[in-house]
Amino acid sequence: MVSSTASDPLLWHFFDPATSTFTHIVACPRTRRAAVIDPVHDFEPRSARFSTHSADQVMSLIRDESLVLEWILETHAHADHVSAAPLLQEALGGKIGIGEGIRAVQRTFSSVFDLDTSFRSDGSQFDRLFLSGDQFRLGELAVEVLSTPGHTLDSIAYLVGKHAFIGDTLFPPEYGTARCDFPGGDAGTLYDTIQTLHQLPAETLLHFCHDYPSDGSEPTEQVTVARSRSTNVHCNVATTRREFVTLRQARDETLASPQLLIPAVQLNIAAGRLPAPAHNGVVYLKTPINVIGRPVG
Length: 297
Hints:
43% of the residues are buried. It is built from seven helices and 15 strands. Helix 4 packs across helix 6. The protein has a single domain, classed as Ribonuclease Z/Hydroxyacylglutathione hydrolase-like (Metallo-beta-lactamase, Chain A). Strands 1-2-3-6-8-9 form a six-stranded mixed sheet, with helices on one face. It is α/β, with parallel strands linked by helices.
């Protein structure tokens, strides 16, 4: 936890080892107004069952710390975990926000999953669609939104004082950068985004959405801009745009699809909400055959 002045947020971080995901809680130290960034709804794919362990941890801390949840913020529509935004909103209130690029992501994947006409590709499942440069208050804290495309079209970061919550743009320096082979992804665009992040003040703390530590190692939750700029193995101060694009595209060719891509994207484009039950009362998701990802093996 970090706490210093009224302009510096209170911070808590949770790591979900099943999806290698960080969830962040940001709060104003004076008013206790809070935001949750990238919450996880646990999903076990073999049994297709949900559980709420990760979300329960977040909600317990909010209650224990007497925080008032005002925002549930997504850095993008994740492909590797299901969002717990609806759970938090139902239990604690707050508005759900995401980048305005979600509309393009919805249009793409509503076609991929052949969603019926009741699915709206206008972003209306979310309470707020953010544009780059948008600002809002979290108690006495100022929050600024920064567009960070390249990994996905809807990717954004949230800047709070010296803290930047950057989603899947960058990983810890020894691991590198996000993949760019999802629909709307582009390695050259991600390079440009990284340059924007690396131009933030050197002491700015970049808070990750993911880390994939080696066995026995603790996950890395943050890094300074200075360290990322100088040591990121994929994109540092010496890396040219052409070098990065070549490296990133070659690496993406070797990557398998995320284990939870099909349920995660299908739900996260709807702000994490399940589709309506079928006539028998059971909720179903769709699995498109020979459409998503690359053959395995």
